[in-house]
């Protein structure tokens, strides 16, 4: 009953709920723009990219058992370099938070609350998320497990409800892709998997580390599965042209459902309600992490003190872009590069240095 | 002290916020049908938009009024702008989430650009459901909608119920907004049901052939039925044919249609349509019996020939005259033979009329009812 | 630690001083044996079982005046001799400390002072009038035992003991409250209970510093983890079988004198949603009812809020025909949906309060009158729409579907918070509220055990969900629930009815 331990199941749930956030909305459309009907290839490969890095993180933690990611970084690199890493990580997290918030608020404004000023939506969500961010990671893991079945239920619900109307032939033709577009597609798809790096931070508080990788990978494959289902459902329902046209096809596809015989219409309410949960469970860990990074940089006891200061900072970031187009074209690009650095390059560097150090110690 | 400030702050938030989006449900107007005509005037207001919405007072237990729906028309520069125009006459704001039917007027359908604008508006809007039914009107839409005022009984609107609940999908083919856009994307052509009004009765029958968002032809019921057979969309239809001088009546229960595309030399398409059903009517007489294998075979043959003729004539029309690929050949090629499609898709308008389309119809009379 | 003196009169005077103006204190002087040794029984009149005292104590020592209570022979052992050979009361105890003696007198024991003895003898004569064993009023079952706790701690302990005849059942008695000195009994099974939990419970009870504990609720509020939360973190029950079952699961039962409500710690959401009857009925219907309860929770907390959100903010999110019907039913209602909802909810709560105050037939009449007639009249007068009445009625009743009263009351309160959120932000507000509630529940712990334990990931595999979300057949519930982290995990053997 030690404090701040999480089980492997909680780790898996944390991964799934953190990663599945706003990416799910525009993912089908964006990969379709790049690769037409073969967008699923990008989704699949994009999802496999994190795998080697999860393994690397696992090895890293095994080399320095019981130490947190930050402690390891400080030990392995010189403190100065470590702080630079932390600052980059921190910038990444707050940009992510600002981005997710902004897109979330835009969606809410579009579907639910047309006249409410966007700033109000942003602030209320930020304040609500800060309540979760102030807790220990263990609490966030518990919330993740509670929300996990709902998040899994959503694509299944989507599938079942759309079954009568799906036109499977819309999935064809396959393998007609433009080879040159594949890297573009994969890069876009990869940004839907952001969040997995957060859970690797949790490796050191997981109970049974021998199985952590197995569960994490299971979680990752679950996410890939969810994204694939959403992609195929939206593709079948819309056809590839309309799919490329839509901005948030995953929600719009629910608007297609109309079975008045079963009193099933206008289901977007349910979908949006679930979706608030989904985004919240994405934001919580990110917000929490940014607090933790500050705690490491300034060496305080808890991260809770920093959370109130982060609210205005992330708020400002989320209102910088003028409209959704700027958000998607500019902010998302910046984010993709930052993400690449933070989730891939940094851990690899740390690992290589740590490996070399260990080698040196041996000889 | 700090706590007090927070509490006061929170309380005032509740009152100051004004609840921006709160509108009482009985103070909204739920537009159920929109009709768009061409408004031939100069200036921006090119559309004559008609809104139809139900009279809430006439629904439910305490129904106090007789007029079931209200209809208003106004010239406007776009569909949703019409809502603003009407705000001078109507006390409540419009709400489009429960829109069910869109009717496009005949003259409007000749203007491709304007139709495209209308469709985009509906596609882009966050509130409109994507499965609204789209109909084409022969004549002016406002006439049609005004004629419904007396008849409207259901809350969804008569046209909607008619279209949605129809079980004889031979007479017209339903089309939703997304369906329309998709088929126009894939094939450049689509069919939407036709609505006309005679006196104060409306009728939905036949179809309107659209090519690239422009009207090219009206189809009557038989032609539409032929198309429906080829697409395998007929659910419940009754065919009559002459058999040895008597009229036999055959009700279709199931229909299916398969396409086979052969790319060996040229493009050869073979449609095999299969109809199954039961014998609805023959004639009572001493020597007339249907309980005979030969008789049934002959009846089937007669029906097959009739259907074949019907389908062939409409296929010829759409292929040669209108060059509108509503039978899904282009779509099929794009999905199943993508390489070939890439070669010919830019020239499809010219290639389509030259394709060999073969047809085989198979009718099976499964049951003959209670008597011989 | 004040000591007694050897002189009887001094002792008695000390007591008189302390108990000045206490007119129900009785001094019964006796002379023992031939030597006419002076002794005195001191007790408070109404707290003792008079018959027991006179027959088994006073009579016992007075009956044979030939006995020689020769001081010279038995000086320091006189009390012991009396205890061992003369007094026939079932429980006796020697006591030197004046403080404890005072406590004893105040709890209904009789103290025997003897001349020239520094020690006194405490005699167990407690016998104040109590209510007999009756059916617990707040938790009834169709099938299952019907005995409920009373206000007498000893009786309550007996009811639990009968169900656990294991020497490993430990009972620790403590006194809590500076002036009330209420007796409490902490019961647990030693080789199941997790030591951390036990330690935590004991630690917190030790820390209590308050005048009086009049009901177990005071104790509950002083030892729970988060007193600000609207939800309980300790289970309260009137049923001895519930306490016994919980002890078997690896939890601690705390019985408090003067109240029929016992406490059980730790608790989780899974436990709060269980009723005693669940374990006495068959598994199919029970599984269905458990799922129904979860549905009832949502209904109770969210129904009015959803009504407000749907009618005022998002009429597009409900099927078309329902929308038109709602609109039609709300024409001419003078209030906006928010005001209507608040008005009716508050009216119902007021009715509920009034119904509780009035006992017996009047109370239930008010319920019917208030509910039916006022509601009906309101609809006919057209100030409220009929759908609102239905919603309010459903929410009020669904609250009672939850077996634990405090847990349900948390939702009664939350319902208003959600209504306010819905009134400002519509569906978005409600979802924010739900998610904040999730976080709040996940944050809470009950004596170190996460509050949301069965649903949030501590060992789902070992069967916790089998007994919380649904109820699997008895044969499948071989292991104790894991959330209590028990030492002995198995509660059932391998071969049982139907299992090979």
Features:
heterotrimer; A: 363 residues; mainly alpha; Amino acid/polyamine transporter I; two-stranded antiparallel sheet; 16 helices; 2 strands; globular; C: 500 residues; alpha+beta; 3 domains; 5-stranded antiparallel sheet
Task: Please give a structural write-up.
The complex is a heterotrimer of chains A (363), B (372) and C (500). Chain A is mainly alpha-helical and 363 residues long. Chain A has helices at residues 8-19, 23-35, 39-48, 50-63, 69-76, 79-111, 118-133, 137-162, 182-190, 196-200, 209-238, 240-245, 249-255, 268-298, 307-319, 324-362, and strands at 258-259, 264-265. A two-stranded antiparallel sheet of chain A has the order 1-2. In chain A, helix 1 packs across helix 14 (268-298). The model of chain A has no long low-confidence stretch (mean pLDDT 84). Chain B has 11 helices and 14 strands. In chain B, strand 6, helix 3 (112-124) and strand 7 (133-137) form a beta-alpha-beta unit. In chain B, helix 7 (221-231) crosses helix 8 (293-321) and helix 9 crosses helix 10. Chain B is globular. Chain C has 3 domains: 8-123, no CATH class; 153-267, no CATH class; 288-450, no CATH class. Helix content of chain C is 46%, strand content 12%. In chain C, a hairpin with a 5-residue loop joins strand 4 and strand 5. In chain C, helix 13 (337-357) crosses helix 15 and helix 16 packs antiparallel against helix 17 (427-443). The radius of gyration of chain C is 30 Å and the shape is elongated. Chains in contact: A-B, A-C, B-C. The interface between A and C is large, with 39 and 38 residues.
């Amino acid at each position: 009953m030690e404090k701040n331990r999480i089980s492997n199941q909680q780790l898996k749930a944390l991964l799934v709920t953190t990663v599945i956030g706003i990416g799910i909305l525009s993912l089908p459309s964006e990969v379709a723009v790049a690769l037409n009907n073969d967008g699923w290839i990008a989704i699949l490969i994009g999802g496999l990219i994190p795998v080697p890095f999860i393994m690397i993180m696992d090895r890293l933690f095994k080399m320095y058992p019981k130490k947190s990611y930050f402690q390891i970084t400080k030990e392995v690199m010189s403190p100065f370099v470590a702080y630079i890493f932390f600052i980059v990580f921190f910038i990444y997290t707050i940009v992510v938070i600002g981005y997710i918030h902004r897109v979330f608020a835009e969606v809410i404004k579009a579907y639910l609350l047309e006249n409410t000023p966007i700033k109000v939506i942003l602030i209320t969500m930020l304040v609500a998320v800060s309540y979760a961010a102030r807790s220990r990671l263990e609490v966030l893991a518990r919330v993740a497990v509670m929300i996990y079945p709902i998040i899994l239920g959503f694509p299944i619900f989507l599938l079942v409800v759309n079954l009568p109307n799906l036109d499977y032939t819309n999935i064809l033709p396959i393998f007609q892709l433009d080879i040159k577009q594949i890297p573009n597609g994969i890069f876009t798809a990869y940004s839907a998997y952001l969040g997995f790096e957060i859970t690797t931070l949790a490796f050191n508080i997981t109970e049974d580390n021998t199985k952590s990788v197995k569960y994490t990978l299971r979680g990752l494959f679950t996410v890939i599965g969810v994204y694939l289902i959403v992609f195929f459902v939206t593709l079948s329902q819309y056809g590839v042209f309309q799919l490329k046209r839509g901005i948030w096809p995953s929600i719009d596809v629910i608007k297609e459902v109309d079975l008045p015989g079963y009193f099933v219409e206008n289901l977007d309410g349910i979908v949006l309600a679930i979706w608030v949960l989904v985004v919240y469970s994405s934001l919580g860990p990110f917000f929490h992490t940014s607090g933790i990074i500050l705690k490491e940089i300034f060496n305080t006891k808890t991260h809770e003190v920093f959370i109130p200061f982060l609210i205005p900072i992330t708020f400002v970031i989320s209102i910088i872009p003028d409209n959704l187009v700027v958000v998607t074209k500019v902010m998302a690009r910046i984010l993709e590069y930052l993400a690449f650095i933070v989730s891939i390059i940094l851990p690899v560097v740390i690992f290589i240095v740590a490996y070399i150090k260990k080698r040196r110690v041996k000889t | 002290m700090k706590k007090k400030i927070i509490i006061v702050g929170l309380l005032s938030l509740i009152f100051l916020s004004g609840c921006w989006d709160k509108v009482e449900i009985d103070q909204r107007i739920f537009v159920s049908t929109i009709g768009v005509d061409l408004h031939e005037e100069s200036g921006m207001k090119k559309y004559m938009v008609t809104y139809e919405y139900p009279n809430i007072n006439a629904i439910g237990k305490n129904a106090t009024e007789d007029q079931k729906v209200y209809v208003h028309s106004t010239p406007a520069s776009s569909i949703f702008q019409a809502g603003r125009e009407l705000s001078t006459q109507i006390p409540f704001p419009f709400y489009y989430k429960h829109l069910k039917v869109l009717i496009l007027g005949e003259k409007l359908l000749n203007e491709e650009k304007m139709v495209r604008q209308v469709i985009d508006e509906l596609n882009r809007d966050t509130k409109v459901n994507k499965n609204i039914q789209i109909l084409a009107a022969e004549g002016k839409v406002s006439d049609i909608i005004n004629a419904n005022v007396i008849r409207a009984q259901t809350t969804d609107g008569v046209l909607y119920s008619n279209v949605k609940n129809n079980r004889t999908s031979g007479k017209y083919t339903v089309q939703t907004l997304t369906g329309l856009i998709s088929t126009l994307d894939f094939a450049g052509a689509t069919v939407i049901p036709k609505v006309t009004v005679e006196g104060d009765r409306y009728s939905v029958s036949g179809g309107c052939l659209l090519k690239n968002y422009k009207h090219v032809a009206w189809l009557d019921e038989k032609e539409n039925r032929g198309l429906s057979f080829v697409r395998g969309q007929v659910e419940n239809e009754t065919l009559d044919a002459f058999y040895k001088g008597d009229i036999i009546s055959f009700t279709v229960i199931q229909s299916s249609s398969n396409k086979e595309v052969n790319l060996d030399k040229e493009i050869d398409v073979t449609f095999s349509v299969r109809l199954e059903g039961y014998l609805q009517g023959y004639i009572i007489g001493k020597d007339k019996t249907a309980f005979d294998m030969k008789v049934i075979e002959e009846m089937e043959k007669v029906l097959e020939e009739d259907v074949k003729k019907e389908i062939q004539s409409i296929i010829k029309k759409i292929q040669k005259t209108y060059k509108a690929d509503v039978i899904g050949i282009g779509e099929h090629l794009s999905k199943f033979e993508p390489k070939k499609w890439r070669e010919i898709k830019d020239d499809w308008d010219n290639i389509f009329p030259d394709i060999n389309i073969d047809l085989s119809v198979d009718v099976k009379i499964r049951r003959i009812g209670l008597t011989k | 630690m004040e000591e007694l003196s050897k002189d009887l009169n001094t002792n008695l005077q000390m007591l008189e001083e302390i108990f000045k103006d206490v007119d129900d204190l009785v001094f019964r002087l006796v002379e023992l044996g031939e030597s006419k040794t002076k002794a005195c029984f001191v007790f408070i009149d109404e707290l003792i079982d008079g018959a027991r005292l006179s027959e088994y104590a006073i009579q016992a020592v007075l009956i044979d005046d030939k006995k020689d209570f020769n001081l010279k022979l038995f000086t320091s052992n006189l009390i012991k001799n009396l205890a061992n050979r003369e007094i026939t009361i079932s429980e006796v105890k020697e006591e030197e400390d004046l403080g404890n003696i005072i406590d004893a007198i105040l709890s209904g024991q009789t103290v025997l002072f003897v001349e020239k003895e520094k020690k006194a003898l405490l005699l167990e004569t407690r016998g104040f009038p109590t209510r007999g064993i009756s059916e617990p009023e707040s938790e009834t079952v169709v099938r299952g035992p019907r005995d409920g706790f009373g206000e007498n701690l000893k009786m309550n302990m007996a009811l639990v003991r009968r169900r656990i005849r294991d020497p490993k059942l430990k009972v620790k008695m403590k006194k809590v409250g500076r002036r009330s000195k209420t007796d409490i009994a902490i019961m647990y099974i030693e080789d199941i209970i997790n030591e951390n939990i036990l330690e935590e419970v004991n630690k917190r009870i030790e820390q209590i510093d308050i005048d009086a504990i009049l009901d177990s609720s005071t104790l509950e509020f002083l030892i729970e983890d988060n007193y600000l939360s609207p939800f309980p973190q300790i289970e309260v029950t009137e049923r001895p079988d519930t306490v016994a079952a919980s002890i078997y699961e690896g939890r601690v039962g705390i019985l408090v004198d003067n109240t029929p409500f016992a406490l059980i710690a730790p608790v989780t959401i899974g436990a709060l949603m269980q009723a005693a009857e669940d374990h006495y009925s068959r598994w199919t219907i029970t599984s269905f009812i458990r799922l129904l309860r979860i549905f009832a929770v949502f209904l109770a907390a969210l129904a009015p809020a959803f009504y407000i959100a749907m009618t005022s903010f998002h009429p597009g999110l409900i099927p078309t025909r329902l929308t038109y019907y709602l609109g039609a039913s709300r024409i001419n209602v003078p209030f906006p949906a928010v005001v209507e909802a608040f008005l009716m909810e508050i009216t119902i709560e007021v009715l509920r309060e009034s119904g509780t105050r009035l006992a017996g037939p009047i109370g239930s009449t008010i319920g019917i009158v208030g509910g039916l007639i006022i509601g009906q009249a309101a609809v006919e007068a057209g100030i409220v729409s009929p759908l609102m009445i239905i919603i309010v009625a459903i929410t009020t009743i669904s609250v009672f579907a939850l077996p634990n009263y405090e847990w349900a009351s948390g939702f009664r309160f939350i319902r208003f918070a959600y209504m306010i959120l819905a009134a400002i932000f519509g569906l978005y507000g409600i979802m924010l509220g739900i998610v904040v509630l999730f976080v709040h529940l996940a944050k809470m712990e009950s004596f170190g055990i996460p509050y949301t334990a069965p649903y949030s990931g501590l060992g789902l595999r070992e069967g916790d969900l089998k007994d919380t979300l649904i109820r699997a057949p008895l044969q499948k519930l071989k292991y104790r629930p894991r959330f209590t982290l028990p030492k002995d995990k198995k509660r059932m053997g391998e071969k049982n009815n139907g299992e090979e």
